[in-house]
Amino acid sequence: MPSRKWRALDAFNHLGADARDKFAWSAQSDDRTVTVITLWTDQIVDDGTTVTADFFDHAELAVWVGMRGNRTRIRHLEHVWAGSREFRVMMIEARDPKADPRSAKKRWPDERLRMTLLAFDPHTGEFRAEGRRSNDWPQPR
Predict the structure, then answer these.
(1) How far apart are CA 61 and CA 42, in angstroms?
(2) What whole-number distance in Å separates Cα of residue 126 and Cα of residue 141?
(3) Angle at the Cα of 140 (from 137 to 141), degrees rounded to 5?
(4) What is the pLDDT of residues 111-140, one digit of tens each?
(5) Closest CA to 115 of 25, 51, 69
């Protein structure tokens, strides 16, 4: 985890997505070649190399299924699902994971991580993805 304090828009843009909404759950480049999805660190399995995200049957699905951020993320994931199935990640650490609504303690672009979309429900936005960090990509600043 980098020590630099990242603003949401800067982190999205750093990874190549053209973000305009600091509360966005995802962003894409204008040419749609880069998709970035936000992941809360307490909602994934991350051993430092492999990251797994599984949002099927998520405990808070009923809360977020109709939210604007989810609707936008669905559009972005539909594009990923129809193409390479690869996306990039902005990690977010919650100040208090039990708070509602949540707020970010830290966020950062995970430059070494590429995730592959393994399953996706375009009606709810539920998805499952897995990725590995590589030392071939730049280290976070």
Answers:
(1) 16
(2) 31
(3) 135
(4) 999 999 999 999 999 999 999 999 765 544
(5) 51
At 98-114, the pLDDT tens digits run 888 889 999 999 999 99
Rounded to whole angstroms, the Cα distance separating 135 from 74 reads 30
128-135: Cβ within 8 A, 24+ apart: 128/52, 128/53, 128/54, 128/55, 128/56, 129/37, 129/52, 129/53, 129/87, 130/50, 130/51, 130/52, 130/53, 131/50, 131/51, 131/89, 132/49, 132/50, 132/51, 133/48, 133/49, 133/50, 133/51
3-state secondary structure of 26: strand
User: Rounded to an integer, what distance in angstroms lies between the CA atom of residue 38 and that of residue 108?
Assistant: 10
Instruction: Tell me the two tokens of residue 55.
Output: 């949002």
Residues whose CB falls within 8 Å of the CB of residue 122, separated by 6 or more in sequence, listed in order? 74, 77, 78, 81
Coil/strand/helix, residue 44: coil
- Of 96, 75, 95, 80, nearest in space to 25 by CA: 75
SS3 64: helix
